[in-house]
Amino acid sequence: MAEREKVTVRKVVGMKGKKPIVAITAYDYPTAKIVDEAGVDIILVGDSLSMVMLGNPSTLQVDMHDMLRHTAAVARAQPRALLVADMPFLSYEASVTEAVKNAGEFLRVGADAVKLEGGSDYVDVVKAMGRAGIPVMGHVGLTPQKHKLLGGYRLMGKSAGEARSIIDDAQAIAEAGAFSIVIEYTASEVAAEITKRVSVPTICIGSGPACDGQILVIHDVLGLSDASPPFAKRYVDLRSIMLSAVKAYKSEVEEGKFPQDGMYWHMKEGEHERLAELLKGKSVTSA
Ligand code: KIV
User: Fold this and answer.
1) Is the minimum distance from the CB of 187 to ligand 1 under 6 angstroms?
2) CATH code at 108?
3) Considering only CA atoms, which of 78, 43, 52 is closest in space to residue 215?
4) In a designed cystine with 49, which of 40, 53, 65, 164 is the match (CB 3.0 to 4.6 A)?
5) β-pairing, 136-141 with 82-86?
6) Residue whose CB lies within 8 A of the most ligand 1 atoms, among 40, 42, 70, 217, for a mutation test
7) What's the domain range around 63?
């Protein structure tokens, strides 16, 4: 059984350089219970829920309502892990005031912190959230909410110029008060450089082994995604396992094998005969 002492923002920061930080996404109550029992350090209610849970083409389609609903479901699992909620597209870009109010809503439904995509442009937002007591996880490199501007879901930081600006972004939000930084699909040398230069933990996805921690989308880990990114690792083919279970159920119903004895119950002794008397003469309604 995993240790039950709550993982706090302070503890996550203290893990830098001491223990690899393990993060994974979850979007619902039962999954949150399982990943927490496995002992992960951070559960992220990612806006990836747009694709993996709701079948949308990108993260742009989810809003505050969707994210709050799923964050609340995960929070009801009362995880020991630090619970981080992703700020959805357009919930923090328009104004600092709106960003702080929206971030606060996540803490109200049980999140411990929020994550937002972006670097130097969001320094004001990260600082204002800090003043309001809202811990912020940054996210640099590939920022999927900006995939249209970036030219798709591509590996970031391959050139020195782009690498430099990702490093500047990471340093800017770390200095603004972010307690950790996700680095997504960025050349591993760049992620290593950021990890050396910032005092807070870096948590990588598709950015190599030099970071302070790793994060994956649970549907990729379990083999439930329609399409996984090249950096995801599938640890089990749950889709096949689910498919055979549902097929077995279908066959048993069709062959009259389900429900079996012990899975259905009877009237009290003599009551069936009494019922037959009561129904005598009553016609049977047909569909
Ligand atoms: O939404 C998400 O799942 C994420 C991770 C990929 C870090 O932001």
Assistant:
1) no
2) 3.20.20.60
3) 43
4) 53
5) unpaired
6) 217
7) 9-216
184 catalytically annotated: yes
Residue nearest to atom 8 of ligand 1 (CA): 46
pLDDT at 3 over 70: no
Number of the ligand 1 atom closest to the C-alpha atom of 115: 8
Residue 25's pLDDT is 98
- Let me know if residue 106 belongs to a domain: yes
Task: Given the residues 3, 93, 184, 193, select the one marked as catalytic.
Answer: 184
pLDDT digits (tens, 9 = 90+) for 141-197: 999 999 999 999 999 999 999 999 999 999 999 999 999 999 999 999 999 999 999
pLDDT digits (tens, 9 = 90+) for 16-35: 999 999 999 999 999 999 99
Taking CA atoms only, the protein residue closest to ligand 1 atom 5 is: 46
Residue 268 lies in a domain: no
Residue 85 and residue 74: Cα distance in Å, rounded?
A: 10
Give residue-wise pLDDT tens across range 102-112.
999 999 999 99
* E strands, the chain, in order: 21-25, 42-45, 82-86, 113-115, 136-141, 180-184, 202-205, 213-216
Could you tell me the distance, in angstroms and rounded to a whole number, from the CA of residue 172 to the centre of ligand 1? 21
Q: Is residue 147 part of a domain?
A: yes
- Contact in structure between 220 and 232 (CB atoms under 8 Å): yes
Cα of 106 from ligand 1 centre, angstroms: 16
User: CA 157 to CA 190: how far, in whole Å?
Assistant: 7
Is 48 near ligand 1, meaning CB less than 6 Å away?
yes
What is the C-alpha to C-alpha distance for residues 222 and 238, in angstroms, rounded to an integer?
6
Q: Which DSSP string do the residues of 82-115 spell out, in sequence order?
A: EEEEEPPTTSSSS-HHHHHHHHHHHHHTT-SEEE
Q: In this structure, is residue 90 part of a structural domain?
A: yes
Domain count for the chain, please give it. Answer: 1
Which residue minimizes the CA distance to atom 1 of ligand 1? Answer: 46
